[in-house]
Amino acid sequence: MPLLGGIRPPIAILLCLLLAVAATTVLTISLTGRHDVPQATRDSESAIAADAASSLRTSVEAEADALRHATRTYKPAKNAAPSAVVRALLATRPTARGAGLFDPRTGHQSAAGGETLSLVGVDVVAQDHDSHGGDIPARLTRSDGGTPRLLFFSRIKLPDAAKGAAASRRRTWLLVVSEPVSLPPVHGEGRTVRLIDVDGNVLNTGAAGTTAPTAADRALAETAADTAHRGPRTTDTSGSLLGERAAGRRTLAGWAPVVPTGHADATRDLGLTVLTSRQVASSTAGAGHVRFAAVAAAVLVLIALLVTAVLTLTLQRPLLRLHLSATRLVRGAHNVPGADAEEDDLTRPVPLPRFGEPARIGRALESIRRQLTDQAGPARVPSRRRLGSRSVLAVCAVLIAAWALPMLFLINRAQAATSIPAVVVADQQARTQAAADRVRQSLDQRYTDLTALTRTLAGRSPDKDRSPMQRVLDDHPQYRSLYVLDRAGAILERVGAEPLRTITHTPTGSGITTVNTSGRIPSIAAYAQIPPATPGAVAKAHDPVVLFGEIDVRALDRTLSRPSLGNVWLTDQRHRVLAANVGFRAFQTLPDHRLTRLAVQTEGAAGTAGASKSAVLDADAAPIGKQSVASAAPLALSGPAAGLDWRVVSARPAASLRLTAYQVQWRTMLAGLLALSAGVACLGWLHIVAVRPLRALATLAERLAGGDRRTVLYPVNHDETGSVTRSLELLRQALAATARPSGPGARLPVPSATRETAPRS
Questions:
Q1: Helical H segments across 335-478, by residue range
Q2: Residue where a domain stops, chosen among 223, 254, 284
Q3: Count of domains observed in the chain
């Protein structure tokens, strides 16, 4: 018999696969939830640290852009001294602690203001040379008192004093401004945030609410710094660490490096890492799944042994016996010389199997043996068929499905209301608040840019000089268009795309607003009043009054998007969608009424922005998923966006959380799917290579035993079934050669329906 054919390989492989599934069930399910802090909680802390690092990175880049804009638009007096220039520029930056004006060719400092600059480890000449005329990245240093400082660099062109007051030649200087390192905002009760440098030193920023780091904090900071700098630092790099355990609680920390956007080289890296930490409950909630995994695996092992025994006893062993019996009859019928006397003795009856097609073939062989020995005539083929080998396969399939289907659909189903711990819900709320902070930060920055531009436009005629507006549009791709309105609301001049505004009045004051209420794209704009050229002058009807900057909604979409936060929407005061990190229609309502109800709950008393809320949304026919963790947070408590009454709403599918309950559910389903796939594959294989040919062979054997001597039996399969087919063909030839009359029906013509060859399988 061939090694890879026949009836034995499918049965053996089915047994091996089911045993492998049982072992997989034990290994995967029993090892789930063995950690004392769930992986979902660790992932949330890592994401919160990444959000804080992103906020700090945006703040640093905004400060650097603001300094470059201030130096680019600064117009010094002809005879202004370098010290006066430094004092004037310091006045525009209230957070600056000190500044200095340097010659980028020699590094000589010509003027200073505020506290003394500490340039330890900073080479001004090398900084200017390495930037190749482009923007110089910020650097981290420490003041003389050991306080961390951020150094911002910007080039400024001033009249060359060596040429006299009337000289037109301008000289490039390097302005260096020192500012304190501020902590990024984080949310969540009991959570602390620290900044650490490349050596793991905790930077004491002097922010309110921070405490001196303990020895454990310093050890955790050193580990975080080492981990953060071990591999490539990107904007998406983050991780979590576990600290000391005490009184049933454990320190959980998240870390993320502050990496400049679009710059992966180490020369532009600040070397800062954000470290967040808090105390969480320590437990091993998944230890109880070990017993379930052991019981489930034991049941599957019993089913595998039972299925193997059934298939062996009802199919494999009877077929092998038929192969031996048919071979013995052929030797006896053809008088093979040298054969053992017992093997070719036609007088010995054929052992009859008790069930299915093997029993039919055995009875046919016994009838043929009797015909060869002149003991009887052709046998009568029974008209009624009993249960066959397909029933055996069906029973085996039912046994496997009885284990696999409950594992796949019923057992270990996670319920959101009980499976999601409160700390994960609180983390979703904290991250939603962080998303609201990012949106507010982005809108505030757009407002600041526009306010600075209005000072440049004061006294200018926009229709004659569009260069300041075009420069801002080029430097800030977050805008889709900039335009100036007169008192009647007409556009005097614009740069960029065609405005989307449908609200044409001229507002008073400055701030953030929406300039359309319908259409394909929501349009959010920052606006600021343009001061008159002469203080106190009354603007004429066609004088520029208000500068508008329409914000590209795609920029807000990217601001809302953060890894593992789920679907996030920015809604207006009527809870209509203005921006989202998923596809949406302009001004549509939230995709689930429960999200709208959650957003309504965040509304506070009159004159307040309200408070953030979170909830677990259980199974329902909702577009956001069957089970979700949702949260809503007001956009801003202060600033230009404070009066908008906008909300940031998020919803994350609970199944995406790496919680113990959901991990056990997926691994239970995987075990059921593997067992079901193994059963279907192997039983289907067995049906194709054994059961179907066996059914055809049983029919042909009964016809031969019933007197059909004309149908030639062609062996198709090179296995046990093919061997029996070859033996029956030799027996047919022996019966046809003898042509003995054995009964009244022996010489009747064979019906046309029986004149066919053996079917090919």
A1: 356-372, 389-409, 416-419, 422-457, 467-475
A2: 284
A3: 4
